[in-house]
Design brief:
GO terms for molecular function: pyridoxal phosphate binding; transaminase activity. Keywords: Aminotransferase, Plasmid, Pyridoxal phosphate, Transferase. This is DegT/DnrJ/EryC1/StrS family aminotransferase. InterPro entries: DegT/StrS_aminotransferase (IPR000653), PyrdxlP-dep_Trfase (IPR015424), PyrdxlP-dep_Trfase_major (IPR015421), PyrdxlP-dep_Trfase_small (IPR015422). It is built from twelve helices and 14 strands. It has 389 residues and is α/β, with parallel strands linked by helices. It folds into two domains: 233 residues, Type I PLP-dependent aspartate aminotransferase-like (Major domain) (Aspartate Aminotransferase, domain 2), CATH 3.40.640; 122 residues, Aspartate Aminotransferase, domain 1. It has a seven-stranded mixed sheet with strand order 1-9-8-5-4-2-3, sandwiched between helices. A three-stranded antiparallel sheet has the order 12-13-14. It has a two-stranded antiparallel ribbon with strand order 6-7. Helix 1 packs across helix 7 and helix 9 crosses helix 11. It starts with 5 loop residues before the first helix and ends with a helix. The structure holds pyridoxal-5'-phosphate. Pyridoxal-5'-phosphate binds next to helix 3 and helix 4.
């Protein structure tokens, strides 16, 4: 079993992807070719945002957004400590200070009720992360931002395709940033990312920053970066976009299978009302994680931990806040475990994962599992368990 099965995904779209790649090799416009423009207009339409700017990675999307907003040394940006490092890294790269606010235990997203106490005269922006594929509490966050004149950047690297009150992630705030890293729900075969906004001036600034701050050829109006996404990667995303909605449905089915078997038995990061998740990760909360992970591994089930150390406890980031600023993030970092997930994970595999997990956590198996299947898998799990020290 694969944690995320990228090979099966390629097989399913092989012809489309190969054709798209061949077309780029034939026209030879490797940088800023027609596929870049096609992808940007397709993604803008998909999210409903007025502008989409493709960039070289999700990390670069965050950096370019902050640059366009004029974030500078001395500024503060409120964010979550429970994310991939790139979220806070982008803030620090601009010389600004990340101000960490704790998360909500149910969703692992930024807890909006804790934000306002951290707003100071130096605060310039709030950067929530739509973690594991589920949009953060954007209405509450936008309302706080509006009261204090702040920008909101949604780090939507894991949530492209998710919805919030019917609106698409990436189009929920001043700026939305996503990533096409291969293992994300919509991935390319290298690095890539995109920025979304409906603000014309910000869009123009971000387009210029992406190409070294160039407003016309060899006229550099502002400081920029080399941040383009190459044509081949855009072509691959265009091909994968064709099956994307179907893939999201398959992901939701796997999540539903897990939900049915685990609900009431194991704490899960749940999708709350008025939003959908694209399940970049399906994550559960367990005590004694090392042992559970070991037993799953012994049964041939790969798992991952997102994330074992919250950002405010990372050596390079520890001086930005007090070590005990975010107790929920700290606790979750010790207990979360992500299960295999993807559009090509079979229902049987999902069953096996859930049953093995329950057994490893010492929880009675649900009755709705057919008895033959249960007996077989129980003995497998028991054999696994007895093989452990
Ligand atoms: C993956 C990810 C990023 C960075 O994206 P890259 O394309 O790898 O640079 C940023 N934030 C979050 C929450 C991510 O999951």
């Amino acid at each position: 079993m694969e944690f995320i099965d990228l090979k099966a995904q390629y097989e399913a779209s092989r012809e489309l992807i190969n054709q798209r790649i061949q077309a780029v090799l034939d026209h030879g416009q490797y940088i800023m070719g027609p596929e870049v423009v096609e992808l940007e207009s397709g993604l803008a339409q998909y999210t409903g945002a007025r502008h989409c700017i493709t960039v070289s990675s999700g990390t670069e999307a965050l950096v370019i957004s902050l640059m366009a907003l004029g974030i500078k040394p001395g500024d503060e940006v409120i964010t979550t400590p429970f994310s991939f490092i790139a979220t806070a890294e982008a803030i620090v790269l601009l010389g600004a200070t990340p101000v960490f606010v704790d998360i909500d235990r149910t969703t692992c997203n930024l807890a909006p009720s804790l934000i306002e106490a951290k707003v100071t005269p130096r605060t310039r922006a709030i950067m929530p992360v739509s973690l594991f594929g589920q949009p953060a509490d954007m209405d509450e966050i936008n309302a706080i931002a509006q009261r204090h004149g702040l920008a909101v950047i949604e780090d939507a690297a894991q949530s492209f395709g998710a919805t919030y009150h019917g609106k698409k992630s990436c189009n929920l705030s001043t700026i939305g940033c996503t990533s096409f890293f291969p293992s994300k729900p919509l991935g390319c075969y290298g690095d890539g990312g995109a920025i979304f906004t409906s603000d014309d001036n910000l869009a123009q600034a971000m387009r210029e920053i992406r190409v070294h701050g160039q407003s016309r050829r060899y006229v550099h109006t502002r400081i920029g970066v080399g941040g383009r996404m190459d044509t081949l990667q855009c072509a691959i995303v265009l091909a994968k976009l064709e099956r994307f909605e179907w893939e999201l449905m398959q992901r939701a089915k796997v999540a539903e299978r897990y939900d049915v078997l685990l609900s009431g038995r194991i704490e899960r990061i749940s999708c709350i009302s008025a939003r959908t998740s694209v399940y970049a990760q399906y994550t559960v909360v367990v005590e004694n994680r090392a042992r559970v992970q070991e037993q799953l591994h012994a049964a041939g089930i790969p798992t991952a931990v997102h994330y074992p150390v919250p950002i405010h406890r990372q050596p390079a980031y520890a001086h930005f806040s007090s070590a005990d600023c975010c107790p929920v993030a700290l606790e979750m970092a010790d207990k979360v475990i992500s299960l295999p997930m993807g559009p090509y994970l079979s229902a049987e595999s999902a069953n096996t994962v859930a049953i093995t997990l329950l057994s490893a956590a010492g929880i009675a198996l649900p009755e709705e599992i057919t008895t033959t299947e249960t007996a077989e898998q129980q003995s497998m799990a028991a054999a696994t368990a007895s093989a452990l020290p």
